[in-house]
Amino acid sequence: MNRRATAALLVAVWLMWSSATIAAGGSGAGDDPRDWLARMTAAMSQMSYQGTFVYVQGDEVVTMRITHVADEAGVRERLVALSGAQREVLRDSSGVRWVLGDDHSVLQDQAFGRSFFPQLPTDEQDRTERSYTLKLGGTERIAGQNVRNLEVLPNDDYRYGYSLWLEEHSALLLKWQLIDSDGKTLAKLMFTDIRMGSEVDPDELNSSSPLKKFRTVESRLPAGIGLTPMAPQWWPERLPPGFELTVQRYFGPQGSGMYEHLVYSDGLAAVSVYVESGGSEWEQDPGLSRHGTTHAYSKTADGVVITVVGDVPAATVKLIGEAVVVATP
Question: 234-326, superfamily in CATH?
Fold first, then answer.
């Protein structure tokens, strides 16, 4: 896999890890699962919270700490691994900095300022409900809080589902499971302690790592620099049901060649399509790769490298990847 695809895969993995920290504010909801989903959506960028959670995927068990502050200064966030190799992510108005591994390298992208959380706009709930079935379940007690279960179940094999346990008053997510269309658990996460609102300690936003001493690695992620507004130059001729284009960025032609980034979403799951100029050294047979629950499909065609990455089943990235062609007017 090329460097850009590797970076994209890394982002997808971190997005998946931190997607379990979705939160919502407001008063308690009734028995309509759409109301719970809407409250979660509204609070992704509005609520301050802080806590420790345990993430489990297969034989991997990682303990992490997150601090998310939303105030007049904007959104600031720090995610740090408390076990295993050093992993730390800092996000603020200047962008995202990733401290990765024991070599103390830093991956920096000043303009990649999007949230680590999956976006779920309320005006897309109708589309989401065409792809998923929403169900409210029973109650439980997690991290000292009473929670309500909300299931977001896939209607086909092109997307994963979620089982969410939400704090009954704020709808803060305290436990999360990623499940496939057969109901099998692929990954799970649970908070062991949680603070919210005025209880959050903003000092925990400060990195414990001397970033200035670290080696900085160019991320090559879409950064908005050299962005050219235009219609997609490449696109999939067909998509899994429910997926629509939500983001398009085009870079070039410049000295480094053409680079296009497309994002397709069903209202919950998101898939990135990367198209970049490539030479003979990029020639490769089409192939799938996997990192945890994230899948990637890469191929070369007409002098470009096409990579599709998403926290979705392998069939989804393969279908989209095989369908990507030069766009026609």
Answer: MucB/RseB, C-terminal domain (3.30.200.100)
